[in-house]
Write a structure and sequence with these properties.
Blueprint: H1 30-39, E1 67-69, E2 72-84, E3 92-97, E4 106-109, E5 113-120, E6 128-131, E7 152-158, E8 165-171, H2 177-182, E9 186-192, H3 194-197, E10 207-215, E11 234-237, E12 240-241, E13 244-249, E14 251-258, E15 265-269, E16 275-280, E17 283-291, E18 294-296, E19 301-307, E20 316-321, H4 331-334, E21 336-345, E22 367-375, E23 384-386, E24 398-401, E25 405-412, E26 419-423, E27 429-433, E28 436-437, E29 449-452, E30 457-463, E31 469-474, H5 478-482, E32 486-492
Parallel strand pairs: 2-5, 4-9, 10-14, 13-21, 22-25, 24-32
Antiparallel strand pairs: 1-2, 2-3, 5-7, 6-8, 8-9, 10-11, 11-12, 14-19, 15-18, 15-20, 16-17, 16-19, 20-21, 22-23, 25-30, 26-29, 26-31, 27-28, 27-30, 31-32
Protein name: Multicopper oxidase CueO
Catalytic activity: 4 Cu(+) + O2 + 4 H(+) = 4 Cu(2+) + 2 H2O
GO molecular function, one term: copper ion binding
């Protein structure tokens, strides 16, 4: 049983930066604000008393379609609360799809539509966004395209007319999304195609998706939520706090998803041994990269292959995090994420080829735009902005001509706080970081989310095609988006 230490929960600020618990009071709905205030008085569980590497990391179950007709697969999902054993010996109330935490994985193929009826049995409205997907506006999960609480439903259609990608779905209902995602309403969506299937990468039981995140718990084992809380210091993998995972002495493919609201990860193996990075947000890289670490901001994904055949049976390795969120965090505690336990040899015919794919040409950009990200670091207010404006659902911030290729310059105007930037509808390419061209490394890939460090400027390029409509771009530190760091863009054909 976990020991408990009572610590008054204060919603403490980022050092010298973000203020306390009652963040963005005018923008939050009344019941959301009340929950935040109540939980700010709860007693914390001491994270150092949580046993590490005592629970096995589960592999999320694959959801089976209710029916398949032609080139369409049909699913039904119900959003509801359930209890999950995140901490050893304690049950935590979470928000789930189909009562499962981690939520079921949907496996789809390019060219085959996926149709999902989502029913909302929660007490808050929701809007489900498939992160990384090329979809019509009606199925994008707009922040104000809500599914009513208490039994409302909506059917989402995902055409899957894009190449393979590791995507994920989560709540996007504005002012509710930060808490609802934090409490568990997210799931993984693995899209494959003929190109990916033609490669002999590790597969089956040796292809493992892992959703990484953090959390803060009260002394009853419940997730404690305060917007923009920097004290979420319990790390989880597939819904378990500091679990272990048994691996055979052979190659594994791990699809890593950063599903945290706020936390950045920099992941490495405890013996500093190299592994292969084979993919990013929008699917495989052109060529595998040998790396010793991989960085993930909230919402980003990394596809890696680790070869455990170099280890003897009985060896243990730890997947470590070398990126604290802020100065003063408990580095020893936060440096550990997941333990691998090598069990012994297993047959392995998989191969990571020297060439994985050919990326599509980028085209010629005809429009340049600039976006400045800023959140008040003084604590005087609790607001977040893009280009000096907080999100307004009725305002179109950016008009884009259908088919246009554009270069966007994204600047983080904060001096201490990182941000990142996610664009709906499209995958983009990173052109520059800090004034230097990006010509090699993990960002030479298809991306939909990019990290922007304090004071940093990043340039990206995207082509806006496929669908007309209104979509959003935002910081994918979800709490920042809920605080207003989001904008609307409208894609439309030229009208004569």
């Amino acid at each position: 049983m976990i020991q408990r230490r009572t610590v008054l929960k204060t919603g403490a600020a980022l050092t010298g930066a973000i203020g306390s618990a009652g963040l963005l009071a005018p923008a939050l709905s009344g019941h959301a604000q009340a929950r935040t205030t109540d939980q700010a008085q709860a007693a914390d569980l001491d994270p150092t008393t949580i046993p590490q590497f005592q629970q096995a990391m589960p592999v999320p179950p694959t959801l089976k379609p209710t029916s398949v007709s032609g080139k369409a697969a049909y699913y039904e999902m119900t959003m509801k609360e359930a209890d999950a054993e995140i901490l050893p010996g304690m049950l935590t109330r979470v928000r789930t799809f189909n009562g499962s935490f981690p939520s079921p994985v949907i496996k789809a193929a390019s060219g085959q539509r996926v149709v999902i009826k989502q029913t909302n049995q929660l007490t808050v409205p929701t809007s489900i966004h498939l992160h990384g997907a090329h979809v019509p506006q009606s199925s994008d999960g707009s922040p104000m395209d809500l599914i009513a609480a208490g039994g409302g439903s909506k059917t989402y259609t995902y055409p899957n007319n894009q190449p393979h990608a590791n995507m994920w779905f989560h709540d996007h209902a504005h002012h509710e999304e930060a808490e609802t995602v934090y409490r568990g309403l997210y799931g993984l969506y693995l899209l494959t195609d003929e190109k990916e299937q033609s490669l002999n990468l590790p597969s089956g039981a040796y292809d493992v998706p892992i959703a990484l995140r953090d959390g803060r718990f009260d002394d009853a084992g419940q997730l404690a939520y305060t917007m923009n809380d920097p004290n979420r210091t319990v790390l989880m993998a597939n819904g378990k706090a500091w679990p272990y995972f048994k691996v055979a002495a052979r190659k594994y493919r791990f699809r890593l998803f950063n599903t945290s609201n706020m936390r950045f990860f920099a992941l490495k193996l405890s013996d500093n041994s190299p592994f292969q990075l084979i993919g990013s947000d929008g699917g495989l890289l052109e060529k595998p990269l040998e790396v010793t670490s991989v960085a993930l901001s909230p919402g980003e994904r990394a596809d890696v292959v680790v070869d455990f055949s170099r280890y003897d049976a009985g060896t243990t390795l730890v997947l470590e995090n070398t990126r604290p969120l802020r100065p003063g965090e408990p580095v020893e505690q936060l440096s550990k994420v997941l333990q691998f336990r090598v069990t012994g040899p297993a047959r392995d015919t998989s191969v990571v080829p020297a060439t994985l794919r050919t990326l599509p040409p980028m085209g010629t950009a005809t429009v340049n735009r600039s976006f400045e990200l800023y959140v008040d670091e003084t604590g005087a207010t609790n607001n977040a902005y893009i280009n000096g404006q907080a999100y307004d659902m009725s305002r179109i911030d950016t008009e884009i001509e259908y088919g246009a290729t554009e270069i966007w310059t994204i600047h983080n105007a904060n001096t201490r706080l990182p941000h990142n930037f996610h664009v709906h509808l499209v995958q983009f390419r990173v052109l520059e970081r800090g004034g230097q061209p990006v010509t090699s490394g993990p960002e030479v890939a298809l991306k939909d989310t990019v990290a922007v460090q304090p004071g940093e400027t990043v340039k990206i390029q995207a082509t806006f095609t496929g669908y007309e409509g209104t979509y959003v771009y935002h910081c994918h530190m979800i709490d920042h988006a809920a605080m207003g760091m989001m904008g609307n863009f409208r894609v439309s054909a030229t009208r004569s």
